[in-house]
Amino acid sequence: MERCIEKASHKNLTQLELLAMSASYNLSDGHARQSLTISQQKIIAGLPDLFAQSMREPFEELERGAQRALLHALGQYSYPQEPGRVLSCYASSVAMVILARAMVDTVSTVALVHPTFDNIPDILRTSKFDLAPVEEEVLHEGDLVANVPPEAGCLFITTPNNPTGRVLTADRLALAAQWCAERDALLALDTSFRGFDVRAHYDHYAVLAESGCRYVVIEDTGKLWPMQELKAGFLVSSPNVRLPLQLAHTEILLGISPFILSLVRSLALSVAAEGWTELHQHIAMNRTAVRKILSETQAVSSPDPDNQVSVERIAVTGWDTRELWSTLREGGVEVLPCCQFYWAEPERGAPYLRIALARDHDSVSVGVERLRDLLLERA
Ligand SMILES: Cc1ncc(COP(=O)(O)O)c(C=O)c1O
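Above: the input record for the complex with pyridoxal-5'-phosphate. Below: its predicted structure, written as tokens.
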């Protein structure tokens, strides 16, 4: 057991996800791996035309079209549209690196939601920021003034959060924005999972603009569509942001592939026309199956009953889930232990596993049945 715990504890989440890549039942990473919908199949069948079109179309027009299509499909009508306000990046992690680079001279402490996906604190720590954990409960229902360190130059929130799926309401976003505006701190949001939850489709940019705070938002397509990592991250900033984001962006990249932007635009226009229901139903069916199968054992409960995003956290009693993770791997089932999400206090993640839901139904059911069988066997 000691060895399993050590093995799971000494890797970051992405390293654990990499170990899972070739597993029979890979329910580990939060990237989309389910089969294509009919509309997506049609878009893929048209890739040669999309490629030719992206060679012909002026880049600026194509980039603005992709950004607009995605942000409008997500209800974000008030995003700032002046040149330079939306920077296209290869992935949301790259947007995060650019943000960290741009903040380095003016921010020392970042108040960061706890728990959250570990590559966010990892990137911030690499840039030598002091990190102050802000518990989800504080962000969603607590007193920000009493609980967020006043010296923080940036308040960073993942909404919906990974792995809990918690979504910041418009009222709480307004409070966080007010906290930042009053201190001239930067409000940073990672909204990579917002496509999964209509509660995150209210117009965040209208709320942010109303507050007058300095903000950045990392928007992402990487979790939404099963496109084999053809994806984009968009780093959106307020006109008053006062950070050298464009400089940091050009220090890292010239621009992202026009072909990928074309693909993003097509996918976003398709979802805008047809709605999010098909994706939401797919995830909801998998979540229901996970909960039903695991209800057959006394050991499992659902700590996030309202979660709608494409990952499901479960609490398992009687196990250190790092050991459970290791035992499941031997049977070809890959999930994630949760200690690393609790980047300030890893032991708090020990009761939890995270199961990816953006997979085909059979793969989720069979993988979770194996988990159930193991728990029943060892009960
Ligand atoms: C909330 C959040 N932001 C950013 C990322 C990084 O995404 P990518 O690997 O596509 O850059 C992840 C990865 O799962 C994530 O969960």
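Notes for the reader.
Residues 181 and 212 are 6 Å apart (CA to CA).
Residues 30, 91-93, 117, 119, 158, 162, 190, 192, 222 surround pyridoxal-5'-phosphate (CB under 6 Å).
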